[in-house]
Structures are given as structure tokens and as C-alpha cells.
Specification:
The chain is an all-beta fold and about 200 residues long. The protein has a single domain (about 5-155), classed as Hexapeptide repeat proteins (UDP N-Acetylglucosamine Acyltransferase, domain 1). The chain has strands at about 5, 10, 15-20, 25, 30, 35, 40, 45-50, 55, 60, 65, 70, 75-80, 85, 105, 110, 115, 120-125, 130, 135, 145, 150-155, 165-170, 170-175, 180-185, 190. The strands form 5 sheets. A 9-stranded mixed beta sheet has the order 1-4-7-10-13-16-19-21-22, with no helix packed on it. Strands 3-6-9-12-15-18 form a 6-stranded parallel beta sheet, with no helix packed on it. It is globular.
């Protein structure tokens, strides 16, 4: 007996693994050898390709397709109609499956509605990609990026609010006004500091 929910209009292929408490809503298709963690939510019309790995507590909104060589870590949010690619120069008559590039979305990242993630990039821990953005290069941990192509516009807390950094000795520092988490910044590298 399965320990996850699947709407009757969805199809999970033999060999796919779906974790406890995960909910798979209308018209979804999960291919063989896909691995979906525990307590995930797949909205309407989500496609998960063969061999894809999705971590725990991931929320995938409607109309998202996750293709081969895309890895989604724990606690990621994928907004409606976010797009992943897996080859840079597709042609209808030329097979380039051997050229698929890996894409990694790290723990806690948010990808906004209608954002496009071009293959071969890493979206950093708790990074935030604004709606409608086109990501063509790696996104650092905690970075807020948006635009076409996406550029760094700020920095985000684990709780999802924008951070304001100020200079403190050799590093810039910030403390979230909501949750109190502290951060240190050096160039484009942001590190969350341990809470006392």
C-alpha cells in the first residue's frame, strides 16, 4: 500500500520512488527511476523525467517540467510554469542526449513563476530567483537575482526576506529584522552565522 497521495488523473511509472506524505495532484507524470522525497507537493500538470532526484519538503507549483540531469535539493520552492532546460543548442532532427548538462537547485532555494533556468547552472542555498527571470549563470548562496539575464540585485534571509548589509570591520554583516539570523558577506559570498 502506497503511503503518498496520487490523484487518479496522474501517472507514476513503475520504478519511480515517491516518499511518504508526498502529494501528486492532477495530470502529473513521473517517469521511471525518478526519486521524489518525503512530504513534497506536486501541483497540477507537473512532469518529472527519468532519473531526476527531488529532495524532501519540496513544493512544485503547476505546469513545471523537471528534465533529466536536474537535481532539486530539500525545501526548494518552484513557482508556477518555471522552466528547466537540459541542452544548450537543441534541434528537432539531431539527438543531443549525450550533451545534457546538469543543473542543481540547492537547499531552500526559491524559483519564481515563469523563470527559465538554462542548463548547467547551480542555484545556491536559499537563493531567490525572481519571477520571469532567465538564469544563465550560477547563482550564489542567499543571492536575490532577477531580470533577463538574471543579475544579483540583493541578498535574502533563510526566512525569505531581503537583507541589508553594513560594513563591520573587514566584512559586511546583516541581521534579519524578522527572524534574527545573522550573516557575513565578502564580495559575492554570503555565509549564515550560527545563532547564539
Amino acid at each position: 500500500m502506497k503511503d503518498y497521495f496520487m490523484h487518479k488523473s496522474s501517472y507514476i511509472e513503475e520504478g519511480a520512488q515517491v516518499g511518504t506524505g508526498t502529494r501528486v495532484w492532477h495530470f502529473c507524470h513521473v517517469m521511471p527511476n525518478a526519486h521524489i522525497g518525503v512530504h513534497c507537493n506536486l501541483g497540477q500538470n507537473v512532469f518529472v523525467d527519468a532519473g531526476v532526484t527531488i529532495g524532501n519538503h519540496v513544493k512544485i507549483q503547476n505546469n513545471v517540467s523537471i528534465y533529466q540531469n536536474v537535481t532539486i535539493e530539500d525545501e526548494v520552492f518552484l513557482g508556477p510554469s518555471a522552466v528547466f532546460t537540459n541542452v544548450l543548442n537543441p534541434r528537432s532532427r539531431i539527438s543531443r542526449k549525450h550533451e545534457f548538462r546538469a543543473t542543481l537547485v540547492r537547499k531552500g532555494a526559491t524559483i519564481g513563476a515563469n523563470a527559465t533556468i538554462v542548463c548547467g547552472v547551480v542555484i545556491g542555498v536559499y537563493a531567490f530567483v525572481g519571477a520571469g527571470s532567465v538564469v544563465t549563470r550560477d547563482v550564489p548562496d542567499f543571492a536575490l537575482v532577477y531580470g533577463t539575464p538574471a543579475r544579483i540585485k540583493g541578498w535574502m534571509c533563510v526566512c525569505g526576506l531581503e537583507l541589508q548589509f553594513s560594513t563591520n570591520h573587514e566584512h559586511e554583516r546583516a541581521q534579519c529584522k524578522t527572524c534574527g539570523q545573522e550573516y557575513r558577506k565578502n564580495g559575492n559570498a554570503v555565509q549564515a552565522l550560527s545563532k547564539a
